[in-house]
Amino acid sequence: MSNQTKYELYKNHLERIADVRYSGAVLNWDQEVNMPKKGAAQRGRQLATLAGIAHELSVSEELGALLEDLVNANDLGAVQLKNVQESYQDYTKQKKYSKAFVEKMSMTITKAFHAWNAAKKESNFALFQQDLSDLVDIKLEEAELLGYENHPYNALLDQYEPGATVAFLDPLFEGVKTNCVRLLEKVNSKQQPVIPFKGKKFDKDAQWPIGIKLLEQMQYDFEAGRQDLSSHPFTTNFGSLDVRVTTRINEDDPLDMISSCIHEGGHALYEQGLLPENYGLPSGEYISLGVHESQSRLWENNVGRSLEFWQCNFPLMQQYFPKEMEGCTAQDVFHSANEVTPSLIRIQADELTYHFHILIRYEIEKAILTKSVKVADLPALWNELYLKYLGVKVPSDAQGVLQDIHWSHGSFGYFPTYSLGSFYAAQYFNQAEKEISGLKSMIKAGNLLPLKQWLNQNIHQYGKQYSADELCRKVTGESLNVAVFMQYMEEKLGRVYGF
Ligand SMILES: [Zn+2]
């Protein structure tokens, strides 16, 4: 059998795995958006069955044999070879998990998730403590099983951001910390802007069409997607031709829905920008969570929180909320979108202090994985760090150490990708500005097509053909450089606060 024939068989195998995975994703989407309450129990087993089938397919001997042959082939094209290498790596990794270990981990996670839910409801960390400790142990076992150099955290980070290590993140976050502290001091020395529409109510039905119009302006393809409501906004996809987003609406703050629509829209444009002919293959999949987040944040922050964006879209706000927006200007919305106030809750944080929330989680994750802090001492450590970095007193575990779902899923190493997303976003947007002449005036005119096409061409279309670092160097000429993000924040906050 020729290598090209084997490649076709491999491709077909991966497409079938994708069929099963994406079918599970449809059920998941339905669970979040449509499913009646009683459907939960049976839906749980349907999802588990599909996940089981996908896992069996992805560790099958047949696939293994094809990959062993193809990974050494010298007559494949460059893209084909990269696909095979990526798949082989993934296959080898999957093989390291025994069935018994997967089951044990799944049970530990389910139990911890329920404990976290109860603990959060009662705002009592003690109810979660033992299960979290079990999770830490099983995650350390997983790190051993996967193998790592220097720090067990590296094995876990790699699952979300391939290539990221403690040695890479430590100096990066150290720089971010110093610069964010300095910039926050500058902000604190100034008056908060007065926002005239604050405190007013914004009818939910009137908000909805604004979100849809903004998605259209971003060139989100409604023939390859749709938007619905859900309690936690998310993006999901079943291939690149059906990419769905959800949003939530807050009557007290229209910018909540608007920023979430643009954020999820940015994630969705990445998925819609992957090439349909690469369905199921690594070249048809996103690079890393950090790069995915760079796409959502580029749209949400660099575009959607810019003055030019609001100069364009303020009339839309006036159209749907003529009374509420009386006496307001585009500048007011721009100020409101960029107000910096240290706060307790990560998902409500502003663009600057957000990174303190991540920094704190990063420090804690490293410490619990090396057992240099006891799980029982986490709430105290959490509260101490919030006071130190954000100057806020944490009133309860629910608003503190229990606020995020991630640890209850055993997702240690996930949080840093949020910050990486913002830093990559600033760098990519900066590059787009250099290459698309008049980008800012295009945003002011509501013409977002050139930016979307630039992202399609430079980032989306490649899928996993490049690593996060390779792509960053290819597009911007250098590796991740936090100075670009800091420069962008300094300029923008300077415009808002007048320094
Ligand atoms: Zn996101």
What does this structure look like?
- This protein is mainly alpha-helical and 499 residues long.
- It has helices at residues 3-33, 40-58, 61-71, 78-95, 99-122, 126-146, 152-160, 166-188, 204-217, 254-272, 289-303, 307-320, 330-337, 354-369, 378-390, 416-435, 439-444, 449-458, 468-476, 482-497, and strands at residues 227-229, 235-237, 243-247.
- The protein is built from 20 helices and 3 strands.
- It is globular, with a radius of gyration of 23 Å.
- Helix 8 (166-188) packs parallel to helix 20.
- The termini are far apart.
- Strand 2 (235-237) and strand 3 (243-247) form a beta hairpin.
Shape call: globular
Largest sheet: 3 strands, mixed
- Report strand order across the widest sheet: 1-3-2
Distance between the termini: 69 Å
- In oligomeric terms, what are we looking at? single chain
What value does the Rg take, in angstroms?
A: 23 Å
- The portion of residues forming beta strands comes to under 5%
Low-confidence stretches: none
Number of helices: 20
Distinct small-molecule ligands in the complex: zinc ion
Q: Which series of helices and strands comes N to C?
A: HHHHHHHHHEEEHHHHHHHHHHH
Count of beta strands = 3
Residue share in helix: 55-70%
| Sheet/helix structural class | mainly alpha
Average pLDDT rating: 96
